[in-house]
Batch of 2 targets.
Target 1
Amino acid sequence: MTTLRDQAAVLMPHLAGYTAHRTIAIGIRQGLIRALAETPSGLTADKLAADLELDPFYVATWCRAAYGAQVCDRQGDTYWLEPHMATLLLDTASPAYVGGVFTVLEQDEMFGRFERVLASGERLWWDGCDPGFIAGVAGTGTPFYTRLIPVGLGQIPGLAERLSTGCKILETACGSGRGLLRLAGAYPACELTGVDGDAHSIANAAKLLGAEGVRAELITSPLETMAPGEGFTLVLNNISMHECRDIDEVTQRSMDALESGGWFVISDFPFPAADAGLREVPGRIMSGIQFFEAQIGDQLLPREAYDELLARHGFTELGWFQLTPMHAVTYGRKP
């Protein structure tokens, strides 16, 4: 029989996790974690406060909480980061980077707005989001590109060899252009095209690619009405397929854009298909992401849904693999 004590033991770790989350987010925003990363030998709370021009009493409070969250270790009054924390929380170029998730989850678009419109169900779209939120989401998506290009794409039979010879690549929902930039570096002989429905994101992509000297055709268009042309060897969608207003229309237009034998690759969150997965850590994090996804009228999809989608549209040689517990890749080829 489940007791009151048993159920209290379920809730208490949630309170501890919330405290750890807020501690980490404060540490990232205020530079506390970076300052510790830059001094591996450690700093006292007083020295950390002095270096950052912060209140020493408050910084000491933060340091104790960071120690409790296992972000820091300490000896006496000296604190230093635990191994690999700098990579996980600060290194945006690492495929393991998760630091941006802590700050994005605190943005109003995630939970605050959801609660305010819980009664009305009023929807939102990207053009109604704060630019800072959009930039934050783009940052959290960067590790998906880092894992996917070129290592992930290299797991798809025959694709890497074809890309190395030069061809046309289309990225749908290209956002601020980080994926296009990585594609250009990995496959310099290829011609790049990016499509996104958000004009602000396309403008950011143009600035980013221009600054890096990367040439790409950029098209502002909903994916449901996109007409990027034909003859693409690869159509890629990274963590955006679940947001399509008409996923079948987007899939058909992706098929139409491909050359015979071309690949359609969907890189996305694999939302749990069974109840048990919802209670595991990856499923719980993805359930948090659903609060924003609900506001834009969609939800993350089980990975198996993409098998069904590609088969429904006549793709062949279907396959999939998992890069992390929260990142799966599904692919198929045009006959």
Note: The radius of gyration is 22 Å.
Target 2
Amino acid sequence: MRRPTLEAVAARAGVSRATVSRVVNGQLTVTPQIREAVLRAVDELGYVPNSAARSLVTQRTGSIALVVSEPPTRVFSEDPMFATVIRSASLELEAADRQVVLMLAGSAKSHARIERYIAGGHVDGVMLISMHGADPLPAAIARMGVPVVSYGRPAVPVPLPYVDNDNVGGAEKAARHLLDRGRRRVATIAGPQDMIAGQDRLTGYRNALRDADRRSIVAVGDFTRESGAVAMRHLLEDDPALDAVFVANDLMAVGVLQTLRQAGRRVPDDVAVVGFDDIEAARYTEPPLTTMRHPVVEQAAAMVRLLLGLFEGGPADPVILPTELVVRESG
């Protein structure tokens, strides 16, 4: 059975070939009545546009790269943040008739491969996630002139549009919540300091402790459960009298609760615990975890909308979403 052609659609709809081309390529210079007639003919004939030919006309591929600066072992781990961001961004792009190309940039070799792929014109834009330190990828992509946005404020001095949550304000609120509950020795387990989220949440904690004229007690993890467990053991060894801990993400907080249980410390009676993110598991820890809600789904969707807006000449202003304290039983 022969594949329906553009000419066949034009004949069925009673319009010119050029008009059909404008409709299938999403141009707006066609009246609603003619557009409806063309789309009806497309549906009746089962016409499928030739994607290669359409790309030549529109100079668009319909694909967006979602670049995660982590190795596969981290992306496909127990951390739900990556799956949530990928799923939410994919759904938002699907609604805009775009598709996601997932690319993992966890090594120098993968960086070079991704740069070649993007420079080859295979995607219309790029979304960057989980950038570390002096990552060269944002600057390299920016030099290509490809529209790019970041999930989180970039750690490198490159003027990239980004969407973030209020990490500093959220961490301040979490630490003040513990202080307001009468806790005297409030420690923190910060996230990795080569990531902006880790830096900003530590800054928020320190602001709250400084305002209360209290000494900061800091350990550092890497946003994994195991690192939270190890950091909590070190804190207990260094300062057995601490009675509260703000943990920079919920996954580390799960490890903290495990260490406290093994040490015979009751939560929240002996040590109160507050996390950050409000992952689903926070509701099912023992006890349920008090945490700052990080709007991951909304942030991913806002990142997509910001990128799509750039295609149409929209603003590149940063978008900052609020966080919310969710009080449960741990602190």
Note: Residues 80-95 form the longest helix (16 residues).
